[in-house]
Amino acid sequence: DLQYSIDETPPFYLCVLLGLQHYLTMFGATLSIPLLVAPAMCVGNDIIATAEMLGTILFVSGFITIIQATFDYVIDLCRLPIIQGGTFAYLVPTFAILNLPTFKCPGHANETDSADVTAFRTEVWQIRMREIQGAIIASSVFQVAIGLSGVIGFVLKFIGPLSIAPTITLVGLSLFRAAAYNAGQNWWIAALTIFLIALFSLYLRNVSIPCCAIKNRRCGCGPYKLFQLFPVLLAILISWAVCHIITVTDVIKKEDTGHWGYNARTDVKMNVLAKAQWFRFPYPGTLINTSHEYSSCICLPGQWGMPTFSVASVFGMLA
Asked: Where would you find the membrane-spanning parts of this chain (predicted)?
């Protein structure tokens, strides 16, 4: 039932489309992490800060994926065709840390009136970001030590699928509220996308569409199982096309922000493109405000400053 065996290489144009589909498949899961964490970090209405988080996780995910695939190919290790993305396993301890009294959001963290308030709000969420960064760094060191020691082989004798599956299930269930909230912004579009993915991947997977393609350096036309190869890509394109038609025809008025289906418009967040940087390199080193009046700065390691470490956060992340 495979279109290509493990030793075959699809044509370059097909690799591009399959790569795009793979990207779109992991796109939602990867970007959902900063979108879920941002409110708990007191980002508030700062769309620039949210854009920086989204851009950072995409950049790092792509960078680590290239390193993993390239080095595995050069030194002939596992060579797994996977994308290195964010993990939901850290979300639960992250929320637990951010719910500590020390990191409760101040009452005026969401105000956006003056430059002083904006600078204060920026420092508020960056303090929390540095704390989470430090906790993840420290817990990662423990993971490296455990992996090098060989203890994990002994522990796996007592940890099987029956103990891991409930843990993964509980992590997924804890994120249901956020998933339902985002899908609930327009249930019709969300349901359409889910329906199309299920339709293409389960019921139309064996339906062939006449197409022209290049295989084994030969060009020819014949039946092609498009739905089997591109179920996610086709579903997203169709759903986006429906949203674009709604926007162009002005079925839902742009001024009617209170309409239940307003988020189906494709121009809802166009202001982000105007305000956020189109090209931004998350460099290790940035200007951090040091005075209460936010008038003096020093340069510290890290995109958002030097990571901070505390016993409570580290052990919370280890759990």
From this structure: 20-41, 53-71, 135-156, 187-205, 226-247
